[in-house]
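Ammonium transporter
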Amino acid sequence: MDRAPMGLSRYFPIIGLAIFSCSIHAATTFPLIQDIYFAPHYLLLILGGLFVLLMQSGLAVVEGGYDPDTRVGLVYAINFLAAFLGCLIYLLVSNWLMPNKLEFELYWKLLIFDWHWNLFFFYMLMATTVNMVVSRIMPKSISILQYWWVALTISSIIFAINSQLILGGFMENEGLLQRIGFIDFAGATIVHSTAAWIVLAGYWVFGKDQQDQIQRRDLASDDGRLLAMALGAFILWLAWSGLNASYISVIPVNIQDIVVNTMTTIIGAMMSIKILALIFSQSASFERMIKAALGGLVAITASCGLVSALSAMFIGIVAGILVFYLPDLFAKKIAAKNIVDVLIVHGICGVWGTLAVVFSNHPVILVSGDMSIWVQLLGVIVNFIWSFSAAWLLFSILIWYRKKFNKTKLKTIEEV
């Protein structure tokens, strides 16, 4: 009877060594914080691209009521085609942007026969979103061809370089900001803040002499405009939830947490702006609450799969506070109301959401210890410097070209 335990004891060192080896293997194969940008489920990524396409319809409904003439349909067509060709141009030159250049033949074999067309589809629609937001800054005095080149440059250069810095290229190379641990889960900085800084550069370059063209009037009646905003908001809510849930990375995240966090953020944003309006005896109009909800959606985009529901609620509350206070402050320097809305909802709320990633309680981020508010701030600053300066140069060249060669006005759909 005593020999059995003694016999088993001989295997204890082997069992202990096996357990130790497994623990070492688990530690070395545990997902890194940089793995958040690698999407293993490519079908979900395609579905996410379709939700981004649905987002365009929501933005189109919201934007359509503020355009000064019937060119809005043409602008949408230009945005879509420019995003497609812009990403295609970026695809062609991405080999030269890689730190480790691949052989040309190998590069194209991987590109054509591997899964990277899924990423191309996703990137193309993200670039379309940037162009859709930027379209409101373009004055009607520019020609269709000039606007085409602006949208194409934004897609192929400004957005492409940003995606290279943060997400990496179409192939398996890491972005520079990705290497140091910068996190932007689904595009609060790379899409929304980028669009806002481009809009700010356009407002800066076009100057006060063109502000009458930048300031758009409401074409629809108040009831019709509110109906359009409500419809656009619900479409964006659905599209945002689907987009965030589809961006599943190597780091394990729960889809139900993403959907709950998205909804919780909207509730926090609308609740905070309603309470502030009651405290300061101001009207919490439906339009104002919709803008707060959109600001919350932008903010949670950076961390929707990485934070708790309580943190998501806090992110939404702060987004609502920003939407409540900042318009009056920005209006002192920027006369165009719709430009102020873009800067706050897409720009400031995008920055806030990117910084709020530090509230993440995800195990991978906690174990890695790489999460830092300074890394997030560095990513925001790099994004602002590149987006604003590149857009400023682009619009300055456009103004110089128009003054030197032509002053053709942007044609309407009927004229085309």
